[in-house]
Amino acid sequence: MSLSEVRENNDAVITAINGDTRFMSRITSIGLTPGCKVSVIKNDSNRPMLVYSRDTMIALNRRECNGIMVEEVTV
């Protein structure tokens, strides 16, 4: 599933990042790498998605979220 499919207040682990070199460089430079845990703070349709990872709040647009593949964490 892509990151954009994760509901608010849920956690996920990044399994893969798909995109061109520029996209991959940008996403990894902000600390989002395979194996990284992310918590979805806001996921309103048609608005940027707000996630929390590695002690940082990150805003991502929908196109970026579709290129980040995750596995949802269940407690």
How many distinct beta strands? Answer: 5
Shape: globular
Q: Between the first and last Cα atoms, what is the distance in angstroms?
A: 18 Å
- Tell me what portion of residues adopts beta-strand conformation: 35-45%
SS field, number of helical segments: 2
Mean pLDDT: 93
Order of helices and strands: EHEEEHE
**Main β-sheet: number of strands, strand sense, barrel status?**
5 strands, antiparallel
Helix content percent band: 10-25%
- Low-confidence runs of at least 5 consecutive residues: none
Order of strands across the main sheet: 4-3-2-1-5
Q: What structural class do you assign from the helix and strand content?
A: alpha+beta
Q: Using only CA atoms, what is the Rg?
A: 11 Å
Question: Can you put this structure into words, describing what you see?
Answer:
- A five-stranded antiparallel β-sheet has the order 4-3-2-1-5.
- It has helices at 21-29, 62-66; strands at 11-17, 37-42, 49-53, 56-60, 68-73.
- It has two helices and five strands, in the order βαβββαβ.
- With 75 residues, the chain is of the alpha+beta class.
